[in-house]
């Protein structure tokens, strides 16, 4: 049994907990996340919440799936917002499970604002975002002395118009790691624009598919061959894209698929 910090704010009926579950491995859940999950009357969960984490939900708790794929929304965001309010006002302890961190490309801010504007209190439970967890599991440090002094997390999700409007000129620093979420479909645009902005075509890059889970796979390439690697291996979402010299930090060492390095 995990310890419970009695000084923490109580989770009471009529409230919502926005809980980040990380990228999939239940070992990466925070104690706070586990505590809220165990108290849930109802769980409203996303596509990227793993089966292993869902197995921690109490058997008596109701489950509602609201997963999204690009252009395929089982329940639109407005509907999810309203579901949270409706169930909270039925005096339930509502747990909203979200992959990664609710406030990192998770639309948690929108949900929290909607709850507050409708008189519902909410708890924000941070989760380990994919950029830090998945890269660690495959031996890629986001920053490394004399190699990378900064990192940027960017959504590669294109607009309805098919455009990807980003400040490309700010991403051409050789000593900056760039991580794209939700960028597989827009990868040809990403690589083309980065090279056009001045990033070297030979910049090391990696694709991390289903990171931290038993299905984890990592593919290494460079900026010019990244899109072709996706085509060759038929790589699908969820896949994280990592670009920068840090990708090759541990190339000469052996790395298992669970974040274990050996000489």
Offer a concise description of the structure:
This protein has 263 residues and is α/β, with parallel strands linked by helices. It has two domains: 16-125, 3-Layer(aba) Sandwich (Cobalt-precorrin-4 Transmethylase, domain 1), CATH 3.40.1010.10; 130-262, Methyltransferase, Cobalt-precorrin-4 Transmethylase, Domain 2. The chain has helices at residues 31-38, 51-54, 77-88, 108-117, 130-137, 187-196, 226-233; strands at residues 16-20, 42-45, 62-65, 68-69, 72-73, 94-98, 122-125, 150-155, 176-181, 204-209, 217-222, 239-243, 254-255, 261-262.
List keywords for this structure.
about 260 residues, alpha/beta, Cobalt-precorrin-4 Transmethylase, domain 1, Methyltransferase, Cobalt-precorrin-4 Transmethylase, Domain 2, five-stranded parallel beta sheet, 7 helices, globular
How would you characterize this protein structure?
The protein folds into 2 domains: 16-125, Tetrapyrrole methylase, N-terminal domain (Cobalt-precorrin-4 Transmethylase, domain 1), CATH 3.40.1010; 130-262, Methyltransferase, Cobalt-precorrin-4 Transmethylase, Domain 2 (2-Layer Sandwich). A hairpin with a 5-residue loop joins strand 13 and strand 14 (261-262). The model has no long low-confidence stretch (mean pLDDT 92). It is built from 7 helices and 14 strands. The protein is globular. By secondary structure, it is α/β, with parallel strands linked by helices.
């Amino acid at each position: 049994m995990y310890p419970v910090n009695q000084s923490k704010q109580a989770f009471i009926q009529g409230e919502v907990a926005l809980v980040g579950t990380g990228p999939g491995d239940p070992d990466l859940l925070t104690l706070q996340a586990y505590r809220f999950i165990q108290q849930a009357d109802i769980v409203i969960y996303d596509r990227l919440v793993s089966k292993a984490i869902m197995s921690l939900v109490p058997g008596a708790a109701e489950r509602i799936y609201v997963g999204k794929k690009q252009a395929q929304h089982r329940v639109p965001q407005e509907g999810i917002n309203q579901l949270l309010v409706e169930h909270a006002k039925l005096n339930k302890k509502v747990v909203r499970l979200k992959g990664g961190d609710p406030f990192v490309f998770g639309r948690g801010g929108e949900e929290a604002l909607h709850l507050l504007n409708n008189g519902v209190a909410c708890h924000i439970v941070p989760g380990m975002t994919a950029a830090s967890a998945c890269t660690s599991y495959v031996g890629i440090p986001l920053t490394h002395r004399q190699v990378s002094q900064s990192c940027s997390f960017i959504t590669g999700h294109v607009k309805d118009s098919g455009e990807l409007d980003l400040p490309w000129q700010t991403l051409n620093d050789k000593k900056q790691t760039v991580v794209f979420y939700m960028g597989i479909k827009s990868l040809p645009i990403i690589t083309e624009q980065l090279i056009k902005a001045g990033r070297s075509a030979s910049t090391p890059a990696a694709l991390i598919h289903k990171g931290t889970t038993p299905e984890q796979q990592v593919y290494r390439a460079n900026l010019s061959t990244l899109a072709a690697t996706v085509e060759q291996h038929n790589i699908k979402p969820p896949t994280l894209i990592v670009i920068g010299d840090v990708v090759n930090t541990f190339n000469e060492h052996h790395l298992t698929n669970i974040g274990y390095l050996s000489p």
